[in-house]
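Whiteboard transcription, Tuesday session. T.W. wrote the C-alpha cells on the left side:
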C-alpha cells in the first residue's frame, strides 16, 4: 500500500514539472503578435516618411522650374500661355478664294418664266417722308438744333429724306398730302394731351404728335393760328394776339395727330363729324 502511494506521488510530481501555466503561454503569444505589429507599423511609417521626403523634394524642384520659367518670360518680354499636349493646334484662318460670278447660276428677271413685282412711282404723287420726332420732355434748344430731313416735298420722288450722320433720335413717317405738301423744314414734337387742350377725350392712351413748320421767317404773324413757343426753354403750344416778348416763337403748328384708342375704333360713318375729333 505504501509502495503504491509512493509511486503515485512520483508520477504526479514528474508530470507537474513538465506542465506550464496557461496564462504564461498566452502572454508570450500576445507579446510576439504585438512585436510583429510594431515592426510592420514601423516599416509602413518609414516608407511613408520616405515618400513625404520625396514629395517635398519634387515640390522644391517644381518651384525652381517655375522660377526659371518666370525669369525667361521676363527676358522675352511677353508671357506666353502654356500649351497643353491635348490642345488642338492653332491654324490661321484661310480666306476663301474669290468666286467667279459668271459661274454662279442666279437667274434674272424674266428668265425661265420668273418675274419680280414692280410698282410704278407716279410722277404726280407725294410719297411718305421721315421727319424728326422729339420727345414730350424736349426743350426749345432741341427744337432749334434738331436736324432737317430735306427741303420741300417733290412729286414723283420716292427717296425724300436723308438721315444726318450721327443722328440717334426717333423718326415719324408722314404722308405729305394737303397742307403738308408745302412744308420746308418740318419737325414733329410729342406732347401729352393735357398740355395741348382741356376738351380732348379723356381715354387717349398716347401722346399727341404735333407737326411744326420751322421755316416761318418770311411769314407774317397770324393771331388765328397756333404756334410752338419757347418759354424759359420749355415748350408751350397756343395762339396769341401778338408775339409775347417773354416767349420765343419756334414754329407754326401745321396739324396734330392723335392715335385712336383700340376700344373706340369702329366702322367709319358717312358723317365726317363722327370720324374726326374737332378742337
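and on the right, the sequence the group agreed on:
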Amino acid at each position: 500500500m505504501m509502495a503504491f502511494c509512493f509511486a503515485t506521488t512520483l508520477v504526479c510530481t514528474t508530470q507537474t514539472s513538465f506542465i506550464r501555466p496557461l496564462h504564461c503561454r498566452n502572454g508570450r503569444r500576445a507579446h510576439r503578435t504585438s512585436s510583429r505589429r510594431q515592426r510592420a507599423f514601423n516599416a509602413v511609417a518609414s516608407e511613408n516618411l520616405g515618400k513625404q521626403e520625396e514629395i517635398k523634394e519634387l515640390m522644391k524642384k517644381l518651384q525652381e522650374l517655375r522660377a526659371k520659367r518666370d525669369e525667361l518670360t521676363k527676358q522675352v518680354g511677353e508671357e506666353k500661355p502654356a500649351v497643353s499636349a491635348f490642345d488642338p493646334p492653332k491654324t490661321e484662318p484661310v480666306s476663301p478664294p474669290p468666286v467667279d460670278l459668271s459661274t454662279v447660276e442666279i437667274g434674272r428677271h424674266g428668265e425661265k418664266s420668273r418675274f419680280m413685282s414692280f410698282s410704278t412711282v407716279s410722277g404726280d404723287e407725294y410719297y411718305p417722308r421721315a421727319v424728326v420726332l422729339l420727345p414730350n420732355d424736349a426743350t426749345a434748344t432741341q427744337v432749334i438744333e434738331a436736324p432737317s430731313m430735306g427741303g420741300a416735298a417733290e412729286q414723283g420722288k420716292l427717296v425724300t429724306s436723308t438721315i444726318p450722320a450721327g443722328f440717334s433720335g426717333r423718326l415719324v413717317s408722314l404722308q405729305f398730302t394737303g397742307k403738308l405738301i408745302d412744308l420746308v423744314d418740318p419737325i414733329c414734337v410729342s406732347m401729352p394731351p393735357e398740355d395741348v387742350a382741356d376738351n380732348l377725350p379723356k381715354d387717349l392712351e398716347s401722346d399727341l404728335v404735333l407737326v411744326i413748320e420751322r421755316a416761318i421767317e418770311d411769314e407774317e404773324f397770324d393771331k388765328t393760328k397756333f404756334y410752338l413757343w419757347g418759354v424759359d426753354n420749355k415748350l408751350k403750344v397756343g395762339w396769341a394776339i401778338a408775339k409775347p416778348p417773354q416767349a420765343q416763337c419756334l414754329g407754326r403748328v401745321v396739324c396734330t395727330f392723335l392715335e385712336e384708342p383700340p376700344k373706340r375704333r369702329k366702322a367709319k360713318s358717312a358723317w365726317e363729324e363722327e370720324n374726326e375729333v374737332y378742337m
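Someone added at the bottom: The longest strand covers residues 248-257.
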